[in-house]
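Contributing: when you submit paired examples, paste them exactly as shown. First protein:
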Amino acid sequence: MSKSSEDDQDAQCNDDSLAYEQAQAGMPAEDPLAAIKTMRLEQLAVCRLKTAEEMQAMRAETVQQSLKLSLEEIHDICCKALRACGVSELNAESIARAFVAAEADGIKNVGLSYFVDYLQCLSNGKINPKAVPKVSQTGAGSLLVEGDGGTTMAAFDVAFADFVEAAKSTGIAALSVKNVHACGVLGYFVERIAERGLVGQAYANAPAMVAPFGGMLPFFGTNPLAFAVPVAGRAPLVVDQSTSTTAYVNIRAAALRNQPIPDHWALNEHGQPTTDANVALAGTITPSGGYKGSNLALMVDVMSAGLSGSTWSHAAGSLTEGNEQLNLGQFFVAIDPLHFSGEDFYLQMQDYVRVLEESYGAYIPGSNRLEQRRKHQEQGVEFDQGLIDQIQGYIANPV
């Protein structure tokens, strides 16, 4: 997942401001690292205080009635809310489809609860509601999309047909997206690539919330990567995971419910493990697998922000606060198996998955997601009434 810290943009430290910060804090100039850490942590505590207070206020309102909506009804309410926020038709349809897919697959932490964050950003201009992404084909197998401050969903949709055609004609194609907001479910995009018979890869960066291995200050985003492969006789095999131990939205949800979190998820402001979600909001998320996750987060930052010319995770602003656009990046790769192993590839993958599951008893990535999809297509999705009321509020008060 790519959702990260919303409130740490004002805590950015750099060499140009170090001397001033030391003088203001009365810190000795000979200890610049301590100065940076102390000021950074003080700033983080202040800017996250608002989040903790909001969680306490929201917690008092969490006892809600529930209701069930079909996928078609979810799509309808999403489109209405997006139009109420001034979103153009092209952008509205792209965004709505992605959020419906998240709810269909049971990925609720980046479903309609995250959609509300999108509506806020679209309303205040942090996301350009009328973005017109521009596609440039820079080579036979390379494309670049300038997202115009909008969403990955719209940018990807505008380039998708050309991207697939480039992969099928050359064997491998790459699509780089720049100047967009956080992408939501990265697996949504690679699954669409795999549905065209191609192997898909994706990388996405996000605002800093994760301490690098050995550090205690946010530098990386949750920086997810995703992979999808077509398999004969079944839906594509999809792997979608962040390079952090968990997503920021999971910690925020735990704080809302006043529930503890596992002690390996996050560090407090002093760099120590914590089980208190509210304390974690003022600290950092840990990288998945220690130095391995930290290394992967670095690679994702380079692939997504570096190759697209977007903003590095540590320099990106708040995910929701203010109206500064984030200029995040993503990088997608599509590979046509017909140019390599040939037509047998899809049946080989079918046998591979069968052996992995039946002979070795392994869980196949995405199996629960597909089961949730079947269930929700038949039975609809259950929501707290309060969440739907929030969305209806945007519909009732168009910008």
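Second protein:
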Amino acid sequence: MSDLDRYLFRGICKDTKKWVWGHLITDANERVYIAKEFSFEQRIAYDPEFHGYESLDAALVIPETVGQWTGLTDKNGVKIFEGDEVLDVYERRYHVGYSNHFLGWRLHSIDHGADFSKEIGVDIFTWIYPKMTLTTVGSIHDHLLGVK
């Protein structure tokens, strides 16, 4: 996995209300963008106070919807992101989130609440074969997309 893949993000575009994937960028005014292509040279040359992101293929996103890729895929090959809802083989629903306490991705049971501040949950890597046992079924932000 390359560094660019390791730091893949997604968020809901403010204009189109659709998911966009790419590199996370925050400008001097704390607006959050996701850029499809953002090379090392562009990062070095970019001055947020004078240029803006108009020249990049970047979308202004709703900050609360931004989630990082966990580095894992589900049994259907779908990338698992922070904020996703997943099902295990027993049809139990979980939210995916990052735990600062455990310094890792965790699965939190929706049936028992997905309060990451309580630092409960199961390490996502406890599933020895997440590609075989987890299925991505949605996101905690689907209501913004009109999905029920």
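If you have annotations for the second protein, write them as plain sentences, like these:
Residues 3-64 form one domain.
The mean pLDDT is 76.
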